[in-house]
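Section 3.1 - Work completed
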Amino acid sequence: MDATRSAELYHAGRERMADAVRDLSLEDLDRQVPACPQWSVHSLVSHLTGVAADFVVGNVIGAPRPPWTAVQVEMRRNLPIAEVLDEWATVGPLLEKLIIEGTTSHPLVCNPYVDAAVHEADLHGAIGSGRPPTELWLATLDWMLDEPGPLTVITPDGTYSVNSDGPTAVAHTGSYELFRAVFGRRSTTQITDWDWDSPEHATTWSKKLASLPQTSVPLND
């Protein structure tokens, strides 16, 4: 994706999420995020802020694994949400500038809208703040599923290939459902319920599709 477009998608998502949480009560900020049950809403925003801060200074060792993200959350655990958002409002534009200048080739740093898109949908599942715009999850799908593979998933918006071990298969579903499933936000039962070319393929791929740890309970967002 063009660097300017990547920065624009990230900027818009950052602004939407900041607006969604800025005036939340302490009770709502402490609400568990269903898609990230170890995190509260405050933790999720702390993670996003920490990602931007770490990317700006080049702290990518361990990204995006849990020990790396845990430090981001812990550092901001006791800060008021206003302070966390102020930090994000400072480091976010620095990250956007870094992307546009093209001084790094790290795929996560160059495409922070991907992680932000996933967590914007997570936030919606927690507080009903609204799904990310269609253009954002479609851009994320294009970034994630850019190599040929044995699984073909056909959605109303396009045809995608999943490059993972498994039998050659075809499934039909919605683009948003595929977006959520690829990042582990749909259970095996939910994926099995897609329109598959055979029950055997549904069973196999419902466990292999997710690139991140898969939820064990159905999620609706």
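Second construct:
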Amino acid sequence: MSTEQWASRPLKEFIRSLAVSVAEGQEELDRRTMRVQRELERAAESGDLDVQMDASWLRFSEVEADLQIAVSIEGEEIRDENGTVRGYRPKLGATPVNPRSRSQFDIDAEMTSEVTVRMVPVPPERRQS
């Protein structure tokens, strides 16, 4: 896929990518904490640590992304079982706006949109015993 094809992506892909990045970052934080906890427990068992300690659990309290994008709408063909085009489904696309995209795609900064995506952690429900 060429660079130009990657420049403009469906908006849902931007949001999904952000969510996956946050989830992967949280997993890394959790793995780190579990590793530190095991090290603390080993140190306590071997006598290198006088007091039993718990590792700190770090959690993203909120992630906010402000995106300046150029929005485009394209029609995705809807075909029947014979392959005949019966209509078009609107498909929202987004191109990040930066100096390179402004010059490469002749994007007018006055015609851009700002999108704010905010993700907050939701604690899991307690399991009933």
